[in-house]
Amino acid sequence: MKKAVRILLVGEPGVGKTSLVLSLVSEEFPERVPPRSEEITIPADVTPEQVPTNIVDYSEREQSEQELLEELHRADVICIIYSVDDPHTLKQVTHRWLPYVRQILGDDHRRPVILVGNKTDATDANTLDTAVQAMNEFIEVETCVECSARSMKNISEMFYYAQKAVLHPTAPLYDADKKELQPNCKAAMERIFAICDTDNDGILSDEELNNFQKKCFNAPLAAQSLQDVKGIVRKYCSNGVANDGLTLDGFLTLHLLFIQRGRHETTWTVLRKFGYDDSLHLSKEYLYPQLHVEQGSTTELTHLGYQFLQTLFEKYDKDRDGCLSPTELKDLFSTCPFLPWGDDVLNTVQTSKQNWITNAGYLAQWTLTTYLDKERALEYLAYLGYLYEHDTQRTGICVTRNKTIDRTRRQTNRNVFLCHVIGPKGVGKTHFLQGLLGRNMASLREQSSAPSSAYAISQVKVFAAEKYLLMREIDAEITELLSPGDLDCDVACLVYDASNPESFKFCATTYAKHFAESEIPLLIVACKSEKAHVVQKYDVAPEEFCKANGLAPPQFYSAVDPTPSQLYTTLATMAVHPQALHVAEDETTRWIKIAAVISIAIGIALGLYKYGRNKINNS
Hints:
Elements: E1 5-11, H1 17-26, E2 40-42, E3 53-57, H2 65-74, E4 77-83, H3 87-105, E5 113-118, H4 128-137, E6 141-146, H5 155-167, E7 174-175, E8 180-181, H6 183-196, E9 203-204, H7 206-217, H8 223-236, E10 241-242, E11 245-247, H9 248-260, H10 264-273, H11 284-287, E12 299-301, H12 303-316, E13 323-324, H13 326-332, E14 357-358, H14 359-372, H15 374-384, E15 397-399, H16 403-409, E16 416-423, H17 429-436, H18 441-446, E17 455-462, E18 465-475, E19 491-497, H19 504-515, E20 522-527, H20 542-548, E21 555-556, H21 567-576, H22 587-618
Parallel strand pairs: 1-3, 1-4, 4-5, 5-6, 16-18, 16-19, 19-20, 20-21
Antiparallel strand pairs: 2-3, 7-8, 9-11, 10-11, 12-15, 13-14, 17-18
Helix pairs in contact: 8-9, 9-10, 12-13, 12-14, 14-15
């Protein structure tokens, strides 16, 4: 909504433009009227809409046409004044002034115009019928009003209508020729209805209508008022009420009636509560609240964020099968301009046998989106209706502590950890990523084709705590240097082909170039281990290389193996507890010891708790 309103008064000489301004300000008719009033400002606190209003009086005798052009472009609303006792001035409204405004601002301009008939005290003639004809011919004319500067009749109303035409314009809402809502307005109202229909039954119940009323107008509707609303809708829309609730058609009809009866402000209040600007687009402030993320920090969903998204999943999982079919997924995103995910999502998260996104996969994909693209996560939380129950999307997303602080303090509250899987093409990285999603070679053959994805994400248990492991596939050749972005991860995984004698050389060379002096935990994985292992053509064997550099022995992975690999737990644990690595021990012993230490600590804590409780009970 505009922060201020600028009203320009134009019309033939002598119609009373200056008198109208002075009568408004002084609340009495001036005995001596100057040729032109200076620009005046009405403070926000004395206007109905609580916005400052500037009123500009144009005098053809005192000012040049160039000044008129400048004022027309600066004005938010134009009041064309005529005298009800002078037919010539009324004729000039349609013969001169309205065509002139179009000439200057363009035939398709959307600057609202108010037609004002002054001097009703001087005659009993009524000009509103003629003015309405002009209104029908020129769609930019918002309304017509008759008033009298001398008798103070309708003076404040005239300026209120002008202000209202700017703050609550009709043109974006209503097609006067077709007598129906504009397409953008209808689409906005359909989105609002879908958000408010929390049980997804296509009807706004009394409870849902009351929640909507409280959201938009800060007060519930009385029981009788609810019945009155539904009664009015029934009168004008045969299918507007069903099961004693308001249907979508009824909801649209209700707002159509508001607009047709001049209550634009009601519809605009609703639209603005749901983020729409004057052009009926969701505003940038609504979609993208500022969320500062320092280097070294990441973004994750909060409990409120997950709670909202889980409720949304349950709302659209109509058959309660724990998956979203393509139709259900489309319905879920019906309040958005387009789907946020491509078909590659089917190779990024867990899916059902029908290749539909599961509940776990759905939450994992939102976790990935929030981690990689916080702007898109903020945007879609707004589209989907997070702000219907919360003041800002910032309560749905948190910024984690800098990773360097986590390493220093040897503890973290993060829940999402990034693993870069690095290797040349063809070594088996893609199958390794798909293994995180519980897929082996056989299940991948059965799965319908979908675009490949550079990412895979799923929850992994790290000492009984659920953490998200986000794996990213990075193609790299032995001759290439990795970019800083390729090295920005919580744990790295260098991959070679156990059946290719030239393959391990990549891991050794890449380690020496990028990881020998790095603090990033590293694991080397030999894929295609179901094939015959061959001797690697390198100076030292992979096992000896890892031992010499303080790394865990190479871990073997087979995409043919139907059982899930423990490698993902190992990678996630290395990411969560990088400070626990100890070069002198082999990998299995190392993580067993870490688990033992944590178990002992938990046991001691429980023992102390029981001892304290028994002591209290005995006393």
